[in-house]
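RETRY 2/3 - previous attempt timed out on the joint model. Re-submitting the same 228-residue input unchanged.
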Amino acid sequence: QSALTQPPSASGSPGQSVTISCTGTSSDVGGYNYVSWYQQHPGKAPKVMIYEVSKRPSGVPDRFSGSKSGNTASLTVSGLQAEDEADYHCSSYAGSNNLVFGGGTKLTVL
Amino acid sequence: QVQFVQSGAEVKKPGASVKVSCKASGYTFTDYTIHWVRQAPGQRLEWMGWINVGNGNTKYSQNFQGRVTITRDTSASTAYMELSSLRSEDTAVYYCARHRGSEYMDVWGTGTTVTVSS
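RETRY 2/3 succeeded.
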């Protein structure tokens, strides 16, 4: 199973919006609406921010949103705040009870 | 609240095996599948496999097939991940995480650092 493709880095100033992409294939991202996004601060465990492409778990700010077009999913963080600086990982169901993660994107708040 | 407490850091020699534990609390252990995910230093998350805690069925990533074994002890509310034939590339933090029906993980363990070095 090949990893999903994410840009290694992204950045934005406080208050701005930034979008992180996650590209897979028709066998994973494009084939199922089971894309999730995780935020990970240094030395900490990941935390789910988005599931089923665009749903937010309770407690996640609505500044975080998700979408998908074809084989590419996206996470948008609006109104960037200092605490949003972290690594973001996408994940997708890949059929036959398999999961696959992306390479991770380091988000820097300038 | 729901939480997973994992076993402590391990240092192993190449060729050895390691068994990491993940003790659950705060929910009915047998109601949820548990995943194992690892992260090498500075690297991406890598899914290793899962166990249906209720019936013991497992699924392993092709990348670890033959080297990983996931088990559980329902009486102790604990899941285990054993990785054999360790090599330096297996140096990583290993996490357990609870599966939700929409194919995501809602609660993650504390992580266990495994270092493989001669």
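The first strand of chain B starts at residue 3 and ends at 6. Closing ticket.
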